[in-house]
Amino acid sequence: MIEVINLTKVFRKPVRQEGVFGMFKTLFSRKYEETTAVNSINFKINDGEIVGYIGSNGAGKSTTIKMLCGILMPTSGKVLIDNEEPYKKRKKIANKIGVVFGQKTQLWWDIALIETFKILKDIYQISDQEYEERLSFINEVLGIKEFINQPVRTLSLGQRMRADLAASWIHNPEILFLDEPTIGLDVLVKQKIRDAIKLMNEKYHTTVILTTHDMTDIENLCSRVILIDKGNIIYDGPLSNIKHKFGDLRTVEIRTKKDLDIDSLDHFDNLVTYTKNDCSISISFDNDKIKLETIVDYAFKHLEATDMKISEISIEQVVKSILAKEDK
Length: 328
What we know:
The chain has 328 residues and is of the alpha/beta class. It is 36% helix and 28% strand. The chain contains 11 helices and 13 strands. It has helices at residues 19-27, 61-69, 90-94, 113-123, 128-142, 157-169, 187-204, 215-221, 239-245, 292-302, 315-327, and strands at 2-14, 32-45, 50-54, 76-81, 97-101, 175-179, 207-211, 224-229, 232-238, 249-256, 272-276, 281-286, 305-312.
């Protein structure tokens, strides 16, 4: 189990002055600028959960992951993995975790991928039988056999990300931290990685903490999300509840017989927002504040709608809406 207790990380950097003379003054300056990346957050993650840890750029996601891994030491508060602090018990915790950073690789650039796996086998002291079993499973779910004998430098981005994921699994970790694992990948490779994460979780009961900007990853993999903004957790709960917690948002897209001026339409005391597209008008509203039936009735009676499409707001739109409110 992972437990985070009042976790805080503050970065300090010297205040730098302009020019060459200012640069030298900075060397002896005692003035510092402090930035709070993570601000006294608390959460627990149980064994076998797949949790989405999401937020905008600079929200504190990667900083949290680095503290969970033991790469960074907290300014205050605690991280406990099976009641051990990872930055104090680095070697012990390293055997229990696997990490994938989408922007960085843990593979050796100039040697064949299979040689990287053999090095990791020795590092983690994996038995021959376990190594063969895991390599077989990895090939089955990620399809790495076709390029396993190639030098890492010759792999495409999609192949390298699959290889990085495989390398993080080779020692069968209890916990897997995935920081943007599908960044820059095409649709087919993304789906292969999502399917692999699901299978790995089902077969080995691996706990997965996933940070990503791709809400499709979250919707396909996670039953729970933790939403962080400016170092503070603003939502922690089931993915299914996040829409209703911040409003039952709906969109009605209609086609009309004539061109309409949206400024002249009924905004129902500012409970409705109109967006004009090339051949249609989108009406966005919170179904908890104004009922769908009212909007549909108005569209047919007063806007002369000829066609209509009703949809719930996507998770991505909900998250954008929440973060936009937090910025105000």
